[in-house]
Amino acid sequence: xxxxxxxxxxxxxxxxxxxxxxxxxxxxxxxxxxxxxxxxxxxxxxxxxxxxxxxx
Length: 56
What we know:
- This protein is mainly α.
- The chain has 2 helices and no strands.
- It has helices spanning 17-24, 31-55.
């Protein structure tokens, strides 16, 4: 049986912008702003998960 490996993610990232961008389709507006906001929010999710793991 083949073992499935989790995709490599950069540190501090749950879902990379490239993956999220592929799901979005056409964006209206500035893509750089959307990317920056996504990466900021994604990093907060990662920080929350690690904070919970460290707390318990």
